[in-house]
Amino acid sequence: MRFTPAARSFVAGLLVANSAPHLATAVTGRRHLTPLAGRGSGPGVNLLWGAANLAGGLALLRSAARAERPGDAWDSRLVAFESGCLVFAAWMAVTERFFPMNHGSAANHGSPIDRGSPAGHGSPAGHGSPISRGES
User: Fold this and answer.
1) Tell me: the pLDDT tens digits for 48-84?
2) CA separation (Å) from 96 to 9, 53, 68, 80, 100?
């Protein structure tokens, strides 16, 4: 079964949007739910999962672009890609609101930020940091 270029672009949008939180989690050293290792997925697993999502999304986008005639504008494929990103963002916002899995003390244990800033407020620029006191 072959999917239309718009359908491939939509799924590419879903995958690319899904890659962003996993790659950000990997860079910050936090834990984030993945299907590879569950809730305890560390930065390495998130890097792998985020890179796989990004690569898959970009491959689908490339195949959708090749399916069109040379010189065609993005038009419907761009709308489909952006729709995929929007659907993923809305789905994550709703599911995290009602079924929180990726935030809170259980999900982020071991995070450098959660271990405390100089002021103990959980953020690098907490009230006790030079940034918040106006020092340079």
Assistant:
1) 999 999 999 999 999 988 877 666 666 788 999 999 9
2) 25, 20, 37, 24, 4
User: How far are the Cα atoms of 23, 55, 78, 111 from residue 103, in angstroms, in the given order?
Assistant: 16, 26, 31, 11
**How far is the C-alpha of 64 from the C-alpha of 132, rounded, in Å?**
48
Instruction: Parse the chain into domains and list their residue ranges.
Output: 5-98, 105-136
Q: What is the pLDDT of residue 120?
A: 40
Kindly report the pTM of this predicted structure: 0.71
Burial of residue 3 (number of CB atoms within 10 Å: 0-12, 13-18, 19+): middle
